[in-house]
Design brief:
The complex is a heterodimer of chains A (110) and B (230). Chain A has 110 residues and is an all-alpha fold. Chain A is built from 5 helices and no strands. Chain A has helices at residues 2-11, 28-41, 61-71, 76-88, 91-103. The relative contact order of chain A is 0.18. By secondary structure, chain B is of the alpha+beta class. Chain B has 2 domains: 15-88, Helix Hairpins (Orthogonal Bundle); 95-229, Cupredoxins -  blue copper proteins (Immunoglobulin-like). Helices cover 33% and strands 25% of the residues of chain B. Chain B has 3 helices and 10 strands; from the N terminus they run H-H-E-E-E-E-E-E-E-E-E-E-H. A 5-stranded mixed β-sheet of chain B has the order 3-2-1-5-8. In chain B, helix 1 packs antiparallel against helix 2 (59-87). The mean pLDDT of chain B is 96.
């Protein structure tokens, strides 16, 4: 049921909606949380062997979807987080964090 | 835009700026009335030969000139707080744009659908065409659909800057590592100018902001053409 809600929200997506957890002027954490959410999703425990391959540390929407599919879980949360952080986060921040994730120096708790 | 020897605000292009102008008119009128009264009293005191050596106190006038200022202050505070809360209303934006300050230009990112990003440099005085405004024009404008709630997230890539557009009643500091949110609705189509409002080095005065408000179809056509160009 939650998947249908998210799918409906994604279909009508215009921009990141108001998030009551971040009601004030400083939206830094809003951007960061959604980026984390996107990249945390694919770290949920699964047991498929491809995860032990060398580029497991490379996060992206595809791996998030892949992991959740492997789990048999619904993948729409990945897309929601991705849309929201793409709307909110500066491109340079996203590129920097992606590079850090690749190098293993990302400061966030994943 | 601003005019030479301008005294008042630029014409409002957003509902918030209209409110701010009305509030300013109201408060300035109070200030003028008080100043006129004080000036009158001073000239009256200075230009009379009458003296009064026996006055000791006066409860009545003391009460009046305590209560009356309190009332005047309330008359200023109530509209002020109304506007403060109005600006803080939860809004539901249709579009998010990121304005990133650099030394010495702004860059704008429209990433709700595709990744559209471009830089906006000031047009140098020698490159202006007739009719353009010195130190205000840029090579790329921040185009925005009119009558749509827009969210702007302001940040900086190097030092402090500040993103300001007076006609919209908007000013927001650009702080490296921080994402500051502001929002507005532009009531009418037009071109609105602003300038960097936080000292940021040698060319702080030469990194202006230009917002162009157009009907939605024009905005869509513009964003498609910008994506093709990139």
């Amino acid at each position: 049921m939650m998947a249908e809600d998210i799918q409906a929200k994604l279909k009508n997506y215009k921009t990141a909606p108001f998030d009551a957890r971040f009601p004030n002027q400083n939206q830094t954490r809003n951007c960061f949380q959604n980026y984390l959410g996107m990249n945390i999703m694919w770290l949920l425990p699964v047991s498929t062997s491809w995860q032990r391959s060398p580029d497991y540390s490379k996060p992206d929407f595809h791996r998030c979807t892949k992991v959740l599919t492997a789990k048999g879980a619904d993948t729409t949360p990945c897309e929601w987080f991705r849309r929201v952080y793409k709307s909110l986060c500066p491109i340079s921040w996203i590129n920097k964090w992606n590079d850090q994730l690749e190098e293993g120096t990302f400061p966030g708790k994943i | 835009m601003a005019h030479p020897s301008q005294l008042g605000f630029q014409d409002a292009a957003s509902p918030v700026m209209e409110e701010l102008i009305h509030f300013h008119d109201h408060t300035l009128m109070i200030v003028f009335l008080i100043s006129a009264l004080v000036l009158y009293v001073i000239t009256a005191m200075v230009s009379t030969k009458l003296t009064n050596k026996y006055i000791l106190d006066s409860q009545e006038i003391e009460i009046v000139w305590t209560i009356l200022p309190a009332i005047i202050l309330i008359m200023i505070a109530l509209p002020s707080l109304r506007i403060l809360y109005l600006m803080d209303e939860i809004n539901d934006p249709h579009l998010t744009i990121k304005a990133m300050g650099h030394q010495w230009y702004w860059s704008y990112e429209y990433t709700d659908y595709e990744d559209l990003g471009f830089d906006s440099y000031m047009i140098q005085t020698q490159d202006l065409t007739p009719g353009q405004f010195r130190l205000l024009e840029t090579d790329h404008r921040m185009v925005v659909p009119m009558e749509s709630p827009v969210r702007v997230l302001v940040s900086a890539e190097d030092v402090l800057h500040s993103w300001a557009v007076p006609a919209l009643g908007v000013k927001m500091d650009a702080v490296p590592g921080r994402l500051n949110q502001t929002a507005f609705i532009i009531s009418r189509p037009g071109v609105y100018y602003g300038q960097c409002s936080e000292i940021c080095g040698a060319n702080h005065s030469f990194m202006p902001i230009v917002v162009e408000a157009v009907p939605l179809e024009h905005f869509e056509a513009w964003s498609s053409s910008m994506l093709e160009e990139a």
